[in-house]
Model the fold of this input.
Amino acid sequence: MTIAATHRSELLMPAGSLERLKVAVLYGADAVYLGTPDMSLRTKSKFSLEEIKEGVEFAHARGVRIYLTLNLFTHNKDIEKLPAFVETIKDIGPDGVIIADPGVFNFVRKHAPDLKLHVSTQANVCSWLTVDYWKDMGADLVVLAREVTFAETAEIKEKCPDIRIESFVHGAMCMTYSGRCLLSNFMAERGANQGNCANSCRWHYKVHMKLKDGTIKELPLTEENLELFEFVLEEGGRPGEFMPIEEDWRGSYILNSKDMCLMPKLDDLLRIGVDSLKVEGRNKSPYYVATVARAYRRAIDAYYADPENWKPEPFMAELEGSTNRGFTIAFHEGRLQNYAHNYDHTKAMAPWEYAGMITETRQDGLILSVKNRIDAGDVMEFLPPDPTAEPVLLRLYDFALDGKTDEPVDYVVGSRNDKVFIPYSAFDREDPQSVKDRFPPFTIVRKESMLAEDEWRRIKLDKTAQQIELGAPNREGIYKKQVAKLQDAIGTENMEKRARTSRKGVEGCCGRGCNGCLMFWNDPEYAKARELLKARKSGEIQMLDRDMREKSA
Done:
């Protein structure tokens, strides 16, 4: 099934605050979904009513659609709020309202017939029959459950051509059926289906023994006794079938899913014309929103420009800079594989981290609002909202705080709300006007992460697992070796952290030709790298190695 060339799928991004909404819009979202804490599953939403109105005006002025969430499952106490809430929504004028509860759907349809109604993923829609039902009920769009495979999605599109279809393409995966989970309620008294999930599935668990006298003691695992135990689960309906659980001194992670990432299969969804491609991101940072939106915007545009030669690899490299737990294509091709889970290491991380945001452009420079610590010599990467523009690297050897430019400091931090003045002249390899135009307010700036050895090994393991999941041959042996190396790294006490490149502080050079880097632009050892960079900027496709120094004999 192939859709006419005039059809374009929309990129739908999340926003948990007005700031994140503006970032999503600037970095390429076609639509943004958001909600208020009162009547949606986004209980940590930081929107006030006035901010929602401002966000809608901001988006609509730039041709971007806004969808509001009204997707909680109502209890009796919630019903009395509905009339006032619906009147407020009508006044705001969103482009769609996302609803899960059939009673709420019916109420809004009757009292606000002009609003376009979207059926939430929480409604667990998995078949064309259910999509057809919601169409008859008056829905404009249906969000398919994450468990729906690509083959099922294609059949739904074919059998239900008169209703818009939305699919998740990126973000955290719930361990239960489209979020219908009671684990958080039971463990932390926080209702997942009231938008307040505690992520209990991602906690680590330890085995304890209950003795005959009623006392409970932890069963410590050591090198001496580890081989004496094997932990298994037995399900009541299948006696005699034992499912092993691997546990070590850190505990056990039996429910920890990797993040969904359908970038490697994005052309499948675009080819059949899925109407809306949704990114999960409840409570995600502006940095996450910007990097993910930019990667998918570039990928979608590249597909429509040349679908026959589209490849996912360049855009996957961009996504790997966003915080993640490893990537999986989830249910796209059917049943999940073991590679879709992390059993040894659950931390969300990336080789890059949020450094700050441009909050003001002046005649003589930029104002950077710092979010995480930046030290003298750190390489900062400015991510332009324009998807056709390339990022720009900058290295500063000290920082001028806004209002105190005559008192430079060696580091800046977000906890002090530091704001750094960066003169256009610091971008000594760029045109000043171009810098001003490319990096408007809400531009995201990132820096290399300092990660421990186990974290670097986890990133390497995640890549191998994804290659296997995508069908790469002869990788299982490498995967097992990398698992063992990760476990060894976790077991060591070496907590030293390092960046991906050889640079550290003001010492060394990453060899990528950063603006302001004294070593790259002046040291004879980097002459070869300078020539390669010049050729690349002249139009040649030329990548710089991590260390391009010319070694002396």
Observations:
- The mean pLDDT is 85.
- Residues 359 and 441 are 5 Å apart (CA to CA).
- The radius of gyration is 25 Å.
